[in-house]
Amino acid sequence: MATVSIRDLEIDFGTLKVLKTLNLDIAEGEFIVLLGPSGCGKSTLLNAVAGLLDVTAGQIWIGGKNVTWEEPKDRGIGMVFQSYALYPRMTVKGNLSFGLKMAKTPHDEIEKRVAKAAKILQIEPLLGRRPSELSGGQRQRVAIGRALVRDVDVFLFDEPLSNLDAKLRTELRVEIKRLHHELGSTMIYVTHDQIEALTLADRIAVMNGGVIQQLASPKEIYRRPINRFVAGFVGSPGMNFVDGTLALGIGAPGFVLSDGTRLDISGYEFSGDAKDGQPATIGIRPEQIELKEKAEDATILPIHLNLVEPMGADSLVWGHVSGTQFAVRIDGDDHVATPATVDAFFSPSQASIFDKTGGARL
Amino acid sequence: MSTTTMEPQGPRPTRLTPARIGVYAFLVVSAAFFLLPLYVMLITSIKPMAEIRLGNLFSFPLAPTIEPWIKAWTYACTGVNCDGIKVGFLNSFRILVPSVIVSIALGATIGYALSFWRPRGANFLFAVLLLGAFIPYQVFLYPLVRMLSTVGLYNSLPGIVVVHTIFGLPLMTLLFRNFYAGIPIDLFKAARVDGGGFWAIFFRLMLPLSTPIIIVAVILQVTGIWNDFLFGLIFAGRENFPMTVELNNVVNTTTGEREYNVNMAATILTALVPLIVYFVSGRWFVRGIAAGAVKG
Fold it and tell me: Could you tell me which CATH number the domain at A240-355 has?
């Protein structure tokens, strides 16, 4: 267990600034997920923490020690790669013990630790096999085991589940979570899959363009995204965005859509300095819309529905609001006639409103 | 009802098309073109001189003999020495073995360093090395002679090994660098996180993966160094002349009549090593040519 602290970290590849003055403090035993689209710098950050990449400026501290110039092996970290990166010519046992052999661990100690890791990950019957004789899920278990045997303080995961099929991904996701509970180690986990991020993380750092956009609990990230990017990136299907202007003059605060519809947004907590008549975007998640009954504080939103997408447990109803594509999630057993223009309901306190130009939350 | 038209099912029947006949005809003709000289050499080498004088180049020997082979191997004259080309055969091996080992070991190490450790200026170094492969050997000959004689290696076995190593290095480095460029970088990263150093990763992880490319490198170097004439003639010194140089001496040493059968036998003996390598390793050799292409 160890804290990880990244201080004013900058990384350039030639003239390209990949990370821009990045700060991140990770508590002991915390599970942090770095979430972002391809090229946002999340893997670069992980590689820098691992010591596989030279930093341009700034410091990296692990366990209260400045490790900026340390070799990867001296940082007390273990890393799991997307491509598993198992040593092809070694057996599973050889893979697990390689790191210990490099550290000149006594033979019986190696045996003990390999046996323990194999037990935790349930790969005991596989110890004599080669990586090519394993399935994807088994390979990733071995890769996790390789970090496990070394008794590291910090686990680094670089998109470990991306190469697995959907079913295995769900299984191993739970297993990683279980492992975190059992070991209590600090874990940094890179992914572009927001479901993984939401299910695993204590805190999520949503990254874009080499900058952490928001660092908060999964709930906070999902409920109160700090800007339009975070709102759009997290959630599947994505948040609905409709452009309009704020009407904060006389009476209840309102949001006027481009077709002139005025939505009552009383109950919404403004966090930024919102001005009357300011162009803005309102964001509502598909499941925050109700088609049937009106809750107490709900606001009416006229919506034109034209397509139903059944997905088993629930269905997605697609339509338009003021000329913008809009999705509503309803129960899988409910029936909606399409095409139709209906009044939908949402609660303004759950919605998000962003500045139209800058994208910051208002 | 017609029985000739069949409902299509299962594999499509293969037909002998004119294009296919053309391809086979071409293959047969080119095979004959390359095999004919070998045939002539083989039958000439087992004819007695009396039959050769008749001038029937393609006719089969009436009284086959292996005497020319024995003479070529044991007592054909190269200049004033009459020990056959077995001396050259041994010399060639003494040059071949260390040259192949050293050049491949160096090429593999440099290729590994360039691919994974990427020292500053790695790409520049690689470009220079590649450029070196395209400069004609002749340009280097005189300076190399001067350099080797300065350090006392001229006309010696270590000298010729050094020369073969230097000239083999660009191709070997290219070969190994390209091979390692195809290995996922994550593997290297994982080994570094596990605490592997430069040599530990090389010997424990990369070399065991390199078997295919090592075989290719061995084929290229064995055939290349065995067939070398120029470097052997210039750098090896009189006692270490390789087989190719000895062969030339056998063929050019004539007292009276030209012994075509002995010359042919000596030539086949000299060509035997590359010939065996080609026969045994045809598949690998093609791979080697493909791997030599610049990528990554």
Answer: 2.40.50.140
Q: Dihedral through CA A59, CA A65, CA A67, CA A72, nearest 10?
A: -140
Per-residue pLDDT, B177: 92
Taking residue A222's Cβ as centre, other Cβ atoms within 10 Å add up to: 19
Cβ of B194 within 8 Å of Cβ of A89? The answer is no
Residue B205 contacts residue B187 (beta carbons within 8 Å): yes
Of A83, A89, A146, the CB nearest to B194: A146
The structural domains of chain A, with segments of one domain joined by +, span 4-233, 240-355
Nearest alpha-carbon partner for A80 in A128, A46, A53: A46
ipTM over 0.90: no
Residue A174 tokens read as 């739970």
Which residues between 35 and 74 in chain A have a beta carbon less than 8 angstroms from any beta carbon of chain B?
Answer: 47, 50-52, 71-73
Q: How far is A233 from chain B (nearest CA, A)?
A: 27
Q: How confident is residue B296, by pLDDT bands cut at 50, 70 and 90?
A: very low
Task: State what percent of residues in chain B have pLDDT above 70.
Answer: 94
User: Which residues in chain A have Cβ-Cβ distances shorter than 8 Å to B182?
Assistant: none
pLDDT tens digits, A192-243: 998 999 999 999 999 999 999 999 999 999 999 999 999 999 988 889 999 9
Please name each of the domains of chain B with its CATH number.
18-65 (no CATH), 88-291 (1.10.3720.10)
Please check whether residue B192 is in contact with residue B133, taking contact to mean a CB–CB distance below 8 angstroms.
no
Contact of B181 with B295, CB cutoff 8 Å: yes
Paired strand residues for A355: A280
Q: Which regions of chain A are under pLDDT 50? A: none
Angle separating helix axes B185-193 and A42-50, nearest 10 degrees: 40
Closest by CA to A305, choosing from A295, A315, A313, A314, is A315
- Nearest chain B CA: its distance from A69 CA (Å): 14
Asked whether the beta carbons of A329 and A314 are under 8 A apart, the reply is yes
Q: What is the pLDDT of residues A310-330, one digit of tens each?
A: 988 899 999 999 888 999 998
List the structure tokens of B243: 């087989």
Q: What number is the average pLDDT over the span B182-195?
A: 93
CATH 3.90.180.10 for the A4-233 domain, yes or no? no
**A362 and A280 in contact (C-beta within 8 Å)?**
yes
Burial of A359 (0-12, 13-18, 19+ CB in 10 A): middle
Query: Which residue in chain A is spatially nearest to B205 when comparing CA positions?
Result: A87
Residue A116: other Cβ atoms inside 10 A? 14
Q: Are B167 and B104 in contact (CB under 8 A)?
A: no
Query: Which residues lie across from A325 on neighbouring strands?
Result: A320
